[in-house]
Amino acid sequence: MTDQKKRRGVVICGSYGLGNAGDEAILKSILQEVRSFAPEDPITVLSRDPAATAAQHGVRAVHMFDLFGLWRAMRDARLYLNGGGSLIQDVTSRRSLWFYLFTLAAAKRLGCKVMMYGCGIGPVNSAAGRKQAARVISRNVDAITLRDAASMEELRNMGVSGPDIALAADPAVTLPAAPPETAEDFLERAGLNPREGQRYLGITVRPWPGFEEKAAAFAAAADFAWEELGLIPVFLPIVGDMDAGAAHTVVSRIQKAPAVILPPCPRTEDTIALFSRMDVVLSMRLHALIFAAGHGVPLVGAVYDPKVSAFLDACGQDLYLPLEEVSAERLKDMLRAAAARREDRPGLEKRTARLLELERVNCDAARRLLAR
Question: Phi and psi at residue 231, in whole multiples of 5°?
Answer without folding.
Answer: -105, 125
